[in-house]
Amino acid sequence: MRHVLVTGGAGYIGSHACKVLAARGYVPVCFDNLSTGWAQAVKYGPFIQGDLNDRAALDAAFAAYDPIAVMHFAACSEIGEAMSDPGKYWRNNVMGSLTLIEATVAAGVRDFVFSSTCATYGEQDGVLLDEDSAQQPINAYGSSKKAVEEILRDFGTASGLNHVIFRYFNVAGADPEGEIGECHRPETHLIPVMLEAIDGQRSELVIYGTDYDTPDGTCVRDYVHVMDLVEAHVLGLEWLLDGKESRVFNLGTGAGFTVKEVIGHARAATGHKVPHSFGPRRGGDAAALISGSHRALNELGWNPARSSLKVMIKDAWTWHKTGGYSG
Ligand SMILES: NC(=O)c1ccc[n+]([C@@H]2O[C@H](COP(=O)([O-])OP(=O)(O)OC[C@H]3O[C@@H](n4cnc5c(N)ncnc54)[C@H](O)[C@@H]3O)[C@@H](O)[C@H]2O)c1
Ligand SMILES: O=c1ccn([C@@H]2O[C@H](COP(=O)(O)OP(=O)(O)O[C@H]3O[C@H](CO)[C@@H](O)[C@H](O)[C@H]3O)[C@@H](O)[C@H]2O)c(=O)[nH]1
């Protein structure tokens, strides 16, 4: 049995990764403290409820399942929260990842896939960000992820820990079969917040800032479908299992959309207007983040076929209408 230890496997992206891993013949072992995840999202393999900062729980997980690799999704990942509570980000994301990396090396596991973010690039002069762009994070979330990238490089040199670092742009959509999806309480991400405004769970979407240097003054982001994203993770895992070198890959489409454009697509995809108002900027937001690299396409053979806003919003809407998880 080819077990893969999936931290954060009860969360949005991690649960989709578990589904795809299971479909490819791996056994995803979910390790998650359920701080923002859901036991109901763990459907495709064993579940260990544990915390990244609990070394004994990690050692027990490695001993019990003898995984061939680690996929590390577990983290705090809200930019607003990172601005007000940076300590939480350094403790959970950096110290937690260090504990996991040390446990991985101690267990003799050599291959490690890590969820990083385009937030490590921060604000840049050029719009397109490729893997060689300077990393100048403007919030503690981006700083914490950049620090983990550096830890991985150091452990790669010292201990031969081979790693693939994926820098995601904005992840959206849901499993088209409707088994799992994005469910955060409270929700902060743009597309699910729009859907909550459409169905009356909140009174409106507040657009954060209209005075950015972008085509219509609202922030530009590059949205990628969660199923495409997790397909890239399987390719990244197999890259490592084939013995290839440690590598960084952006996961984005190269197309940027303003918040107002996303609202327009939501109306078309759902048939409903998005009630919205205009508010001040949210601290820590970069004006525009767009992936300018073809590295994942060319080197991994990645094909982000589902990553149109139409499909992402349609799949998110189908999931949203199920009511999400409860408890
Ligand atoms: N959603 C995005 O657009 C996006 C973009 C870039 C990067 N990422 C990264 O992808 C990863 C997954 O994000 P997500 O959107 O699925 O978030 P999520 O909050 O849905 O999932 C994170 C999971 O990690 C678990 N977790 C957090 N801290 C833990 C700890 N100390 N020990 C054990 N489990 C812990 C949570 O309970 C949750 O199940 C994160 O690392 C995030 O930084 C997400
Ligand atoms: O109620 C809302 C929510 C969001 N936005 C805007 O919509 C855009 C997208 O915001 P959001 O969905 O919160 O995503 P980001 O803040 O861009 O961060 C996400 O995307 C990053 C990569 O860009 C990841 O690293 C993070 O984990 C993930 O939360 C931003 O311009 C926000 O200002 C609003 O205007 N109103």
UniProtKB/TrEMBL annotation:
Residues 4-252 form the NAD-dependent epimerase/dehydratase domain. It comes from the Bacteria. CDD domains: UDP_G4E_1_SDR_e. Keywords: Carbohydrate metabolism, Isomerase, NAD. The keyword Glycoprotein does not apply. Its cofactor is NAD(+). It holds the Pfam family Epimerase. It catalyses: UDP-alpha-D-glucose = UDP-alpha-D-galactose. GO terms for molecular function: UDP-glucose 4-epimerase activity. Its EC number is 5.1.3.2. Homodimer. Belongs to the NAD(P)-dependent epimerase/dehydratase family. This is UDP-glucose 4-epimerase. It comes from Pararhodobacter zhoushanensis. The gene is galE.
